[in-house]
């Protein structure tokens, strides 16, 4: 059958189109990863989604939601899966641990490492592992070992002699308890949370610690079990708004809810950004110097016009027990495609928080915006790590993440 006779919305054509897009975007960079994406049928792991949606290069497929409607399991966007697999530098015969299952990514890994490799995929949810086992068997990847359990504890039981050549984490985690399972030259790809910020790191050994290479802005379904995120997450305005704070005093949800609809302090910074211009270093800089740093979220399906955040997800905020201020935005007058940052403050301390966040934005623009971004290292929790000259240490149960900014 010629290609012209294959329907344009057939899985084979959609898969080929997805691969071409990933290659053009630079997410696929090696023949091995390209071959895996070209062969593994993503639609077979997402039967609840139409094939066109399953093969959308930039879209996540949600496979399960919790009682609050938030995703508890998903298949990551192909661009992010490709980027993480490239970062892992897998080879034939490699031994790989995947934290967070679903089946499709494990099949990609199995395709790359070949029959002589080892793929162990772990998930805490029996709904997920049952699906993964079934879909892997149906698509010819039954050799993948699917393990039900909390990865913080059960992964040790399945480590091969000499350790795993790669650990690939596909859920958002707050800590990294798997470093001891890694082979000396292995690589860990981890979407790590710190101060409510998420970055996907490639961790490689450097003596007694790990270097965190190529931090990539990302978002993942949060992990469950012993390693779940320690965030406080008050939900306001009937679900239209959510705040996230990792540390600090217990938050008063009722007071914060009242603050949202009460008097506000609005300030404009004069700092502008283009439509496609990144400003994620702003998050890192504020988190470096302010313990009240958190995130403001708007549910796009419940937009009542009450708030105007600079972004719906991962919008910088300063949060206290009963007050908050968040980053907002407006089109800059007299320009095309540029936007001005502002701040909206709410609650008893809203004015003080708004002025503080305003100053953070202006300081970032004046002194930090054009500097190289910080470097990251990951150390054991009991290691004696000197504080960076400019930066911060994020202390966790098993590890401590050091963020260090260059002096110039």
UniProtKB/TrEMBL annotation:
Membrane among keywords: no
| One example GO MF annotation | methyltransferase activity
- What family name appears in the similarity comment? Belongs to the methyltransferase superfamily. L-isoaspartyl/D-aspartyl protein methyltransferase family.
Q: What class of enzyme is it?
A: transferase
* One BP annotation, GO: methylation
EC number(s) on record? 2.1.1.77
Mind telling me which InterPro entries this protein's record contains?
Methyltran_FxLD, PCMT, SAM-dependent_MTases_sf
* Location of the protein in the cell: Cytoplasm
Q: Which NCBIfam families match?
A: methyltran_FxLD
Pfam families, alphabetically?
PCMT
- Listed SUPFAM superfamilies: S-adenosyl-L-methionine-dependent methyltransferases
What's this protein's name? Protein-L-isoaspartate O-methyltransferase
Q: Quick one: where is this thing mainly located?
A: cytoplasm
**Which organism encodes this protein?**
Nonomuraea spiralis
UniProt xrefs under PANTHER family: PROTEIN-L-ISOASPARTATE O-METHYLTRANSFERASE, PROTEIN-L-ISOASPARTATE(D-ASPARTATE) O-METHYLTRANSFERASE
Record keywords: Cytoplasm, Methyltransferase, S-adenosyl-L-methionine, Transferase
